[in-house]
Amino acid sequence: MHFDDRLATVLRIRAASERAAKTQFRQLIDLLGERPQAGDKALKAAAYLRLIALGEMISVAERARIVGESGWRFRNPELVKWFGEAHPQIAAAALYRAQLTAVEWAELIPQLPIRARGFLRHRKDLPAEAERVLDRLGVSDRALPEPEPLELMDELAPPEEDEAPAPTPAPAEEEPAPRPAPGKEDVRALVDRIESFRKARTGEKDAADAPRLPMGEEERPLPPLDHFLFGADSAGRVDWAEENIAPMILGTDLTSLGSQAVEQVISRRQPMSGLRLTLRGAERIEGDWIVDAAPRFTRGEGRFFGYVGRFRRAVSDVTDRREAEADRLRQLLHELRTPVNAMQGYAEIIQQQMIGPVPHEYRSLAATIAGDSAHILAGFDELDRLAKLEVGALELEAGEADFAAIARRQVMQLQTVLSPRVARFDASLGEARAPLALAQSEAEMLCWRLLATLAGATGAGETVKLHLDTAAEQIELAADLPAALREAENVFAVETRPSGSTVSAGIFGAGFSLRLARAEARVAGGDLTRIGDRLVLSLPLLTLQDSLPSPENASG
Questions:
Q1: Are 520 and 513 in contact (CB under 8 A)?
Q2: Would you list the domain boundaries of the chain?
Q3: Where are the alpha helices (DSSP H) in 203-305?
Q4: DSSP string covering 130-187, please?
Q5: What is the pTM of this model?
């Protein structure tokens, strides 16, 4: 049980910093990399789960560097297979260090992904049995094959005698003429053969054969348009739209698009919800659309002055494709939840000693596994929520919440986390109310997702400015981007994760959390956008008319 004792000792320690995570990552792969032997299967499963959790704290490049360090001898086929299914950089490093027997290689190679099998072709020390398995599976080297000696001689040979011009008589004492060297045409022919071989292997076509306009390369088509924001005046005429759509839609009269429901809604000053309209004109906007818009009223007098909302495609290839992808993601999450739920249940049974006494050491490990499982399930819930929000399959719970009060309270909570790092929020939130048509829990979740992500990415000694503006018909919470996010080309796709015990809004990194917050804001009628070095969250305010009961209900 020597193996299990060491593994249990390592798992008992919680990695609270990136440095500790790297140390524990090395310890685990060192222990798991030994020859397969008897031991506690649950303990080994906990070790692999811990490796997954540590991977969230260590970048891919750093993990690949650790795995590729000299001195490792991965002699456990199970660990080699696990690494082979990881990121290509990590898989390549692990397969280069793996030291298995001929029988183990022969059994393992068919189970590896095709990409990982290709990495093995760069090794020159594989057993003959492994080479035969690779050959049988059709895994070949990607190097350019050497030409046959006779073919190369033909390419570089001088012209035949019957094709050569008649030699000029040389003086009697002249030295023999030097041997003819390959000319430029011969070298060019060899280069052309190499280029033809490369194109045949990659399937690339000659640019000269591709049809294009005489004046240059073919113009790339614009991406499909599936939604856009707009504003309309009190008569229903579009007077504002997103910059790239404005020339196609400005001046369009919504009441003239063939739907009597639009006229009734505008005359009654009601919200537009799911109205189907057909646009004609430019190719990008032509077709059937669904319109969702909210009426706008002046704050002082409550005078109606138009609508602001969004057009979204009623039926389009883009929507169908997104819905299909979201459905596949939900099915995958369902399949992944089943084993994680089972693992969590078994761990809780052990930790609570429901089937008999359990040593404290194993109860501690079971509690850790149960916590990690809950962490993973929470991540699955966030993925499922994002998929539903982006295809319009989920609506936020309606209600009334003061977003300004929520922001002030959460900023005070996060200041206590930032203070030990001499970092802080320089917040200018004012004292005014900012009522939203969202349930309290939904507004708190959205605000926390944004602020906690910014706090988690804030470095030591850094100050992040926050400003809340409630003067218009919508609120705007503007926040400076921390240095860790400022240089990102797409802030909604970065993988920045907080180090140590810093507060975080999710387990998939800052980019995912911000993308989820953006999806929630859009469903609520607003948006989350990057403007220069700032993030701006905009949400429609709850007007006085919306918050008061209608005359019919009041009279009843």
A1: no
A2: 2-136, 227-315, 318-390, 401-546
A3: 246-249, 260-267
A4: HHHHHHHTT----SPPPPPHHHHHHHHPPPPTTTSPPPPPPPTTPPPPPPPPP-HHHH
A5: 0.43
